[in-house]
Amino acid sequence: xxxxxxxxxxxxxxxxxxxxxxxSKMVISECFxxxxxxNKNLYIxxxxxxxxxxxxxxxxYRNIDKETDVLSFPMLEKEExxxxxxxxxxxxxxxxxISIEQVKRQAVEYEHSFKRELAYMLVHGFYHLMGYxxxxxxxxxxxxxxxxxxxxxxxIDR
Length: 158
Hints:
By secondary structure, this protein is of the alpha/beta class. The chain has one domain (4-153): Collagenase (Catalytic Domain) (3-Layer(aba) Sandwich), CATH 3.40.390.30. It has 6 helices and 4 strands, in the order βαβαβαβααα. A 4-stranded mixed β-sheet has the order 1-2-4-3, with helices on both faces. It is globular, with a radius of gyration of 15 Å. The model has no long low-confidence stretch (mean pLDDT 91).
């Protein structure tokens, strides 16, 4: 089973992009492999959107009235992921929503490629779905190490 059930583009404002789809599949697959959950019948939905839409979603679900780069909406608790048996019925790990324009801006700001920034957003979103966060220094260190491990294995450097 593929670990991405679908990659959706905000069709009114974004054209489907094969490179984004292929990168998403590669990155998410590596995340699943590193976390050893590739056989647990879990999948993720990846949604690419525009700044105005991600701002609307951010306000609605987080009460933050501003654009952001990535939002993650987990469907399972960390304990549920750990208890899930291989071969059980398919479950959605969650949704990752990414603003393509924000990714482009950040790639320029951080002086690295668009590919690297998009891959980072996918990995970052994945680890939020897995229950990781970066609200304090300790959490941030753990999450960043996991993100860099995935990107390093894929040889997607800064």
